[in-house]
Amino acid sequence: MMQNAYGDQCLGRTQCYDWFKRFKNGRESVDDDPCSGRPSTSTDDAHVTEFNAIVRSNRRLTVREIAEDCNISVGSCHEILVKKLGMHHVVAKFVPRLISQDQKDNRVTICQELLNRANDDDMYMRQIITGDRYGSMAMMLRQKSYHHSGLVNFLRDQKKLVRSDQTSKSC
Fold first, then answer.
1. Cα separation of 84 and 45, whole Å?
2. 13 FRET partner, CA 20 to 30 A, in 22, 36, 68, 153?
3. How confident is the model over 105-129, as pLDDT tens digits?
4. Percent of the chain residues past pLDDT 90, beyond the cut
């Protein structure tokens, strides 16, 4: 009857009787009991510091290569990298998800240096080339059309498609 009213979030009859029996026998906590068994030794602090040193020295290592170097399973290696060290895989290297304070300070100094250059030299900003992937693709197609006169119509049609994508997507 309770499950009809509350759905899956309600305990079943047998489970309610089981919990009642446990609390009647003296149990005071609803938390799980500690499980007996072998503790995990592959994801301890020693392995975490070792992994951190390995990844910082060479970011292009794969999970399998790191696992083979440390003689642990690939799953434990991935768990240390993602959950313990907070890294994720970008293109072909592991990078931290959050940047450190030194990296933030370095970015601020570089931006200030670029701003000072722009303020000192009026022509500096005109030398910077900006664009997204669609703008650069359209420029490449335009250059190709001059060199391959036989494909001008084909490239012109592609260029129009690129422009329509460029106008439909906002930055």
1. 9
2. 36
3. 888 999 899 889 888 887 777 776 6
4. 4
